[in-house]
Design a protein that fits this description.
176 residues; mainly alpha; 51% helix
Length: 176
């Protein structure tokens, strides 16, 4: 097929996209088109659609710590039981603060006298950022391009800002 036919197809596709879309929504159209065409390998890593196995973090607590049936259950065991689907998949300690404040407080107080169990994958936010940035292959002081794909934007923006802060700190260190 010659370039004129390819450009005609592109023009036809472009004309079928509604005019009122935001730039982020237009980027979504582009990404999903790449998915449908089996061409996601051509997308930049930060524009790749989210992993289909991704489990969204809960917006509210599946069970409240104060309402647990076994009153002797320790915070770490409660977290392992109730939050099992999200452990090691993006849930961090700071999420507990907004999901179940009494659980967060109980964990904080329990950790004053106990070691954090190594079998419980519940990192602090900084540790979670470190893991996810390392998974993306980002080294200290490197920047991520600002994400444009709207799905999962909150996590991508958090990582963008974490990388930006670290790059700024690295630059500051290098000057001194």
């Amino acid at each position: 097929m010659d370039n004129f036919k390819v450009l005609a197809i592109v023009d036809d596709l472009k004309n079928n996209i509604p005019d009122g879309l935001t730039s982020s929504e237009r980027a979504d159209v582009f990404v999903y088109f790449a998915v449908k065409m089996g061409m996601t390998h051509l997308l930049r890593p930060e524009a790749q659609p989210p992993d289909p196995n991704y489990i969204a973090l809960p917006q509210e607590a599946p069970e409240r710590y104060q309402d647990r049936a076994n009153r002797r259950e320790r915070p770490a065991n409660f977290i392992a039981r109730v939050y099992a689907p999200w452990l090691g998949k993006g849930l961090a300690r700071n999420h507990l603060l907004s999901l179940d404040r009494p659980l967060y407080d109980a964990l904080y107080n329990w950790l004053k006298k106990n070691e954090f169990p190594d079998w419980l994958d519940l990192p602090m936010l900084k540790e979670l950022n470190d893991r996810q940035l390392a998974d993306m292959g980002l080294k200290d002081g490197e920047m991520l391009p600002h994400p444009s794909f709207d799905n999962g934007m909150r996590d991508q923006l958090r990582l963008y800002h974490a990388a930006k802060t670290r790059a700024r700190m690295k630059k500051k260190q290098d000057r001194t």
